[in-house]
């Protein structure tokens, strides 16, 4: 039985900060960002946008095409959760009127949890073909102002319908994984922003890739040459390029510049202008490959490298299915990107400091133009509205 991604759709916020604006504010050569880390824009969430509203925006387009009453589980991956106890998926379940006969859970391990949710959903469907699972990966990447990570912020959510006979990607059995207890990036419970040892985090990412690849290769027997397109976790696009070079070296592969470009670049277009979206980033990269590839991808093998700081990594693969082009939501992705509004640095700071959500009561100013927004906090309860 084939199991995997039947539909995929991503959402981002209505606002962005250009790295040109950022560079001139900080008096830094813009090429440090456009060339050095390979980023142009960061999606910025206003205070009335959070992972629940982003996830709802991402999932709605899928639920418009399938009967929501048939969804059997929501696996919600995030590292920017909104409550220490109640899962973000439970808020989402209410906003989207999902059936009561449904299981909901939140998964966390930094940027890795989206891949974990996808693997778990696949296993659930393999054990019961009736399962139709909504996998969500949603995050808002937020670092301290003037920290090394500030230029690598962003936000986004991906929704995937995982079922049997998938129309986009059939996941293949066998994967390679790796865990190590390290402190490269973390966010203690009392902090809204992440702490990071930036240079160290890039080293740990690449080291994890080598280990996860070795395990993948041993488990599946697949080699570098068996893979047509490579999707990596993309905190910034230059990181994926470093990853691909590392894998080429590790596997002693011969790859021309044109092949390198073909294997990697389609999967980077959205991420370059959305920024880091943590758990969603790998799958926004996959949407980018699907939407921008010039060749027909049918029967092509795509690999996925998920890296979550702290750290857990996994390398796995899937095969693109014959009907994939007929179910892509490219127009919706591009429309969202096109309608984003540019922020000045001062406006970005205004959103950044936003409203104090730790208050017992507050009403949030209306900036989020999407179908779902966080409207208020009432007696410490989040009040969402759909419109
Ligand atoms: P930095 O100190 O701002 O930048 O840190 P830099 O001085 O290292 O420069 C970056 C690159 O730009 C360098 O190239 C420079 O040479 C180049 P490289 O040596 O890397 O090839 N450069 C220029 N190029 C052209 N023209 C110029 C110019 N100036 C410099 N004028 C750092 C960079 C990545 C550390 C920083 O952005 C950071 O701390 N980011 C956050 C952490 C991060 O994204 N880590 C990635 C791996 S960990 C991960 O992916 C997990 C994560 O997503 C979280 C999770 O799992 O939950 C973060």
UniProtKB/TrEMBL annotation:
<comment type="similarity">
    <text>Belongs to the thiolase-like superfamily. HMG-CoA synthase family.</text>
</comment>
<dbReference type="GO" id="GO:0004421">
    <property type="term" value="F:hydroxymethylglutaryl-CoA synthase activity"/>
</dbReference>
<dbReference type="InterPro" id="IPR013746">
    <property type="entry name" value="HMG_CoA_synt_C_dom"/>
</dbReference>
<dbReference type="InterPro" id="IPR013528">
    <property type="entry name" value="HMG_CoA_synth_N"/>
</dbReference>
<feature type="binding site">
    <location>
        <position position="29"/>
    </location>
    <ligand>
        <name>(3S)-3-hydroxy-3-methylglutaryl-CoA</name>
    </ligand>
</feature>
<dbReference type="Pfam" id="PF08540">
    <property type="entry name" value="HMG_CoA_synt_C"/>
</dbReference>
<feature type="active site" description="Proton donor/acceptor">
    <location>
        <position position="79"/>
    </location>
</feature>
<dbReference type="InterPro" id="IPR011554">
    <property type="entry name" value="HMG_CoA_synthase_prok"/>
</dbReference>
<feature type="domain" description="Hydroxymethylglutaryl-coenzyme A synthase N-terminal">
    <location>
        <begin position="24"/>
        <end position="163"/>
    </location>
</feature>
<dbReference type="InterPro" id="IPR016039">
    <property type="entry name" value="Thiolase-like"/>
</dbReference>
<feature type="domain" description="Hydroxymethylglutaryl-coenzyme A synthase C-terminal">
    <location>
        <begin position="175"/>
        <end position="247"/>
    </location>
</feature>
<feature type="domain" description="Hydroxymethylglutaryl-coenzyme A synthase C-terminal">
    <location>
        <begin position="248"/>
        <end position="341"/>
    </location>
</feature>
<feature type="binding site">
    <location>
        <position position="242"/>
    </location>
    <ligand>
        <name>(3S)-3-hydroxy-3-methylglutaryl-CoA</name>
    </ligand>
</feature>
<feature type="binding site">
    <location>
        <position position="276"/>
    </location>
    <ligand>
        <name>(3S)-3-hydroxy-3-methylglutaryl-CoA</name>
    </ligand>
</feature>
<feature type="active site" description="Acyl-thioester intermediate">
    <location>
        <position position="111"/>
    </location>
</feature>
<dbReference type="Pfam" id="PF01154">
    <property type="entry name" value="HMG_CoA_synt_N"/>
</dbReference>
<feature type="binding site">
    <location>
        <position position="143"/>
    </location>
    <ligand>
        <name>(3S)-3-hydroxy-3-methylglutaryl-CoA</name>
    </ligand>
</feature>
<keyword id="KW-0808">Transferase</keyword>
<dbReference type="GO" id="GO:0006084">
    <property type="term" value="P:acetyl-CoA metabolic process"/>
</dbReference>
<protein>
    <submittedName>
        <fullName>Hydroxymethylglutaryl-CoA synthase</fullName>
    </submittedName>
</protein>
<feature type="active site" description="Proton donor/acceptor">
    <location>
        <position position="233"/>
    </location>
</feature>
